[in-house]
């Protein structure tokens, strides 16, 4: 089996372990995010399965690169290099989409009632999503309790314990006690946190993809030239070696 530089071999193996950890982080990000509320309020095609797919692909590529580096497999490393090139290029697309998404969210924060329909005119599916969100987040209405136009649902009503904790307010519609916080600011804050986390993940993937391309390219080059001669630098002689002279034995004088 061809031999490569041991430091490069273990460096690429450790790199792929870190790359797999990034994939696990992306999957965890999908598990902890509330995409149902975001989709129901902002009509975005954002699903947890998207994060599961991206995280799984990252982990498969990391395993491929780790196996190729550890076993010094040229085929696995070439396939890993191709995946790194395509993956780095693909980071531009989600980055652009996320920039558009953030500008849209910022415009909705500045103009919350632009194109917004009252809850009594919304579709039953959207009303159900908002009511579930109100019960979990303890809020009422997207922007205020007036979104319900007097038809305040039970999900907005406060309990006695919530009233004692100061989370409620009394409204004119039947003197009901409802949650004082609106739901949209809570969702908007979560969306911005989600944006920052996803953007950091994509930037990390782009940097790791570039590093993986460099490491795998060097290792593939070493595997293609296993019998390359080793060049040793020798210092040129600055002095001539002493010449050997013939030694003559001098006989001692004779004594008669």
TrEMBL record:
Keywords: Disulfide bond, Membrane, Transmembrane, Transmembrane helix. It is a multi-pass membrane protein. The keyword Ligase does not apply. It comes from the Eukaryota. The keyword tRNA processing does not apply. GO terms for cellular component: membrane. Belongs to the tetraspanin (TM4SF) family. SUPFAM superfamilies: Tetraspanin (SSF48652). Disulfide bonds join 139-168, 140-156. This is Tetraspanin. Its main location: membrane.
